[in-house]
Amino acid sequence: MKNILVLCTGNSCRSQMAHGYLNHFLDNRAVKVYSAGIETHGLNPGALAIMKEDGLNIDHHTSNHVDEYAEVDFDYIITVCDHANENCPYIPSKNAKRLHHNFYDPSKLEGTDEEKHAAFLKARNEIKDYFKNFVEEYRLI
């Protein structure tokens, strides 16, 4: 079984969406997906809502700290924001393929409801495309 870690600052938005799409694209194959943060901020309501619009329910996810997975040997560690990439503690998975992509953070936008929705939609679609390509490129399906 392969283990994938998606890492962000607060494990509330981008990493949660990525986790949801990885589970969706992998469809219960022999891969375990984890998401974590270098902090924990709880689940972002905007992320939950935008994922539901695409038919994915991530309400059951939890916001976890990367230290909770210290004993897991990861095959892939994917950081989804520059802050986590630059500030992540050492993760002792010697053979892990480490990837990084800084996704736009919709949770930081202040604006109208329509502007916020557009920001979450933009981030969600970027994350969806990236992780669909990741699963195909690394032949996980």
TrEMBL record:
Enumerate the Pfam families for this protein: LMWPc
Q: Which InterPro entries does this UniProt record tie to the protein?
A: Ptyr_pPase, Ptyr_pPase_sf
The Phosphotyrosine protein phosphatase I domain sits at 2-137
Q: Which UniProt keywords apply?
A: Arsenical resistance
Domain of life from the UniProt record? Bacteria
Q: Does the keyword Transcription regulation apply?
A: no
What protein name is recorded for this chain?
Arsenate reductase ArsC
Classification of source organism: Bacteria, Pseudomonadati, Bacteroidota, Flavobacteriia, Flavobacteriales
